[in-house]
Predict the 3D structure of the following.
Amino acid sequence: MRSLSARCLLVFAALCLGCSDGPAPPPNDVATDSADGIVRPPTAVSLQLNWFPEAEHGGFFAADVHGFYDDSKLDVEIRPGGPGTQVVTQVATGRVLFGITNADRVLVGQAAGAETVAVMAAMQVSPRCVIVHENSGIRSLQDLGQVGTLAVSSTATWSLFLQKTVDLKGVQLVPYTGNVSQFLLNDDFAQQGYSISEPFVARLQMAQPRVLMVSDLGFNPYTSVLITTPEVIRTRPELVAEMVKASVSGWLKYLDAPSQTNQAISNRNEDMGLPILAFGARELKSLCVTPETPRTKLGRMTTARWKTLLGQLVDVEAIEEGKVDVSKVFTNRFLDEP
């Protein structure tokens, strides 16, 4: 049996696939006053996405499109991600100043020595889901053992939690291919997805998917989380404050009026048409704003949520117990400032 330490390293390695082993170059967006050597807030800021531009990044694009970054005197370069993009590693090593990732990856990275800090969370509810066919008779994730085949990323933390929580003994687990083609061909097939995208694509092809939210099982990491490093927070707090303030304004704008931003996202990612982006923006409203976190508190996080997630990651052996202090992985400091 693989040891716990080896299991933790395997999970982090899966998250870090494609990451360079070379020494990190200094970030291009650090500016220094040559006269006195004082580091000043840069006007050029790099923001690394965790995937290709989609609705899940809408608020950050809205902050750019509607001038909120400009108003904060920030020239933000939004860098698209894709397969193999390791946001936590890039931020922790100083390749970029800010990144977008999910809370579970922050914790797994922290346990492996990649120190980052979450400074706002766009989504309070994770859009991670499993889609099944309406005619399958499956009504909840607890019924998922009735499906014949399930396509998932086997080493993803949410997938480890699902496999530990739900009886899947009779289910054939196959790798997730990144599209719904197999789902469309087989009524006895289920697959992972994001509630803001895959259900729309499946319905467009005349399928009738039922969306089962992983958050309903209790596994609910903050999503589209803005991260930076402890060093940036310590040495450039004004920069972080402006970045957070402008990003929150962008998210509020996107939730209210996404059309102009969706056009900008579509221009950056031709696979994202305006109809699917409009669908995603509508779905995001209930993921970003909840009874516990109203619009006036958008982006805020709680110690209890982080501790719960950490405990779940320990349970699935993605992190060794005692390796992470949640007080070091997030802060509401810049959200609480006027």
In short: The longest strand covers residues 117-123. The radius of gyration is 20 Å. The CA atoms of residues 14 and 155 lie 7 Å apart.
